[in-house]
Every structure is written in structure tokens, then in C-alpha cells.
Sequence to fold (402 residues):
Amino acid sequence: MIVKHYRILILGTLLFLLFYGLFHILFVSKSVPDVNWTTTFNYDDKEPNGCWLFHEILKKSYGAERVVKLDRQNIIPPHSDSINKGYLYIGDYFAFDQDKLENLSGFVKKGDDAIIIVSDFGYYTDSLFRQYFSYYGRQDSLLNLQISGDTTAFSFSYYEFQFDSSVFYFHNVLDSLDKNDVRDIEVLSYFNDSLPVFIKMKYGLGHFYIHMIPDAFTNLGIKKGGMKDYVINVMPLLNIDTLYLDNDQYGAIYSGADSPLQYIISQPKLKWSYYIVLLGLLLFAISRGQRRQRIIRTIDINENTSLEYVHTLSELYRAQNQHYKLAIHLKSLFSQWIRKKYFIKPDEENYIRKIAHKSKMPEDEIQRLINRINSAVGNKRFGEEQLKNLYNDLDHFYKNCK
Fold:
């Protein structure tokens, strides 16, 4: 019962903490606003690492009606000789599969332009560009970005969301731009005086524009001092009728809504409520998952009533003046005791001598004891005093034998 009460107390305490935490998260206002620091590169995301400001700059540069976000159909509109088109991709990783990459390369090769703003390339995309340039990784805490032909430096530093201080930022740098005809590649921007970060590369009848610092185009990056002017001036003003935007981090070429679970996880209050519900279900499963059975009733311990039986039987024989029957029981108990202790049976030869030898008692004393027992058995005139004497003789033997 103590263990049961202890379990109930623990379960009650956990449930109280569960509901208290849920109430605190849902109804207690925070002293700071909720900010989602997830890097999405989403054109509709106004959080620090979204690209809403970049989207607004593009709409102002090209006109809102000429900037179109691709849908879930994962299709880049085909080339048209009558309409000039452009494609812009921003994300952390450019990893199209072979079919999607052939779709994009064919789009550019026929005369359209594509702007790729990423920090790294996947296998197939890397194989497309490796004949023109290579790249290598490095770490910097501060990037002084410059546009070719302009000495103005735009400082960009990467910020961790939990600290308002710069950290070392790992990024890739374009290299070996002279692997092919140098006239095919033009450096549009560099950092720290000489390291290329943005290039224009001729590909068929069109061009690829490749920028290696996507974080500079997020809302947080653009808001830093001078970076807005850098983004406005570094982006090529293409002679196009429509600019198609893509921002999926894994190259799926669509801009769609998150799933309900992703939305819940993205909101701190909903996220912790979701976790608390999961914890509550886990505790419920643990507590209810234990093996349950009917209550086992308490069974009284069996008592040894042999002494009560002997007392009752003795009183019965005494009241009926049948002392010889008690003598019969005393003889039976004596024979069993001798057989168990000395391994001597009553029908053995020299029975009395063997008992005397093993018990170290005088043989004549044992002879008298056996005679007294035999004379009592079957003698209905055997009296109470005789029974007491017989009992005393047996008790003397039990206490003095070896």
C-alpha cells in the first residue's frame, strides 16, 4: 500500500508540473518578442534570416509584376525568343538532381540568364561549373565586400542569433577563374581586396551569375550598415521581361507553405506545448502500461494446532478415565523417537541392549521403562498416578540419554 501511495504521489506531482508548464507557456507573456532565427531564404519571411527585404528590392528594381515566384510544379518556364526571362535561386546549398540541372542549363544555354546565390554546390551542379572555376573554404569574422570598379567597402559580419557579436563565418571563395578562356568570366564583386565572391559566366547564349555569400541577402544582412546599397548595386539589372524566383534550400524549385507540424515547431509557444503534450502522453503510457490484475485478498497464515489437538485429546481421555490410551500414544512416540535417533526398530534382537549402548543409559533402567510401558498398554485399570510416573520416567530418559 505504501508503494501504491508513493506512485500516486509521483504521478500527481508530474501532472501538476505538466499543467503548470503548459499554463505558463500559453498564458504568461514574455518580456521579449518571439523571433524565429531559422535560415529559410524565403521571400515572404520577415524574420532575420528570411529574404523579404531582398524580394522588395527585386520588385522595385524590375517591377512587381515582372517578379514571379515559382510554384510547386518544379518547372522552369521554357525559353522563348519573344520574351526575355531570368531565373534567381538563393539558398544555402545548390543541389539540383541531373534532370533539374539539365532543365536549368538548357534554359541558360538558349539565351536566358540565371543568378545563383549559394554557399556550396551539390555533386551535379559542381560537375557543371568545375570546368570554369573551382572554390575553397575559409573562415572570416568580417567581410569587406567591394563592387568591381568601386573602392567603396561594405562590411558584412555573420551574427549568431543568441549573441549580438560577430563570429567566424565559414564560406567558400571562388578560385581558378583562368581555367578556361578568361573572357568567359567577369568578376563583379570581391572581398578583402582580392578574393572573388561574385562572377558573371558566359554559358551558351546566356549567362550564369554566381554569388557565394547568401547570408548577405537576408533581412538581417541587408539591415547592416551599407549592405542595402551593396545589394542594390551589385545585383545585375538584366534586360528581362520576367524574373522567376526560387529559394528552396534543397533545390526543389518551389515556394510553398510549411506543413502544420513545421509551423507548430517554428512557433516557440506552440512548440513547447507540443512537447509537453508528448511528454504527458509518454507518462500516461508508462503509468497505464504496467501490468494490471485483480486485487489479491489477504490469506491468513496457517497455524500449527498440534499442541491444541494434543491438549484436547488428553483432556478427553482424562475425563473418560482412559489413561491407558494415552500410554499407547506415549509408547508410539517413544518407539518413533528411538528409531529416528538411534536407528533401532522395536522388533530387533537385543532391542534393550542396543538402546542402552547407544544412549549410555543403564540397561536395567531401560528394562524397567520398557516393562512399565508394556504393562500400561491395554490395562484399563491404568490410573492417573501411574500415568504421571510413566511420563516422568520417559522425560528422565529423554533428558539424560546421549
Notes: Residues 306-400 form one domain. The first strand starts at residue 67 and ends at 69. The chain has three domains: 2-31+272-288, 52-262, 306-400. The longest helix spans residues 2-27.
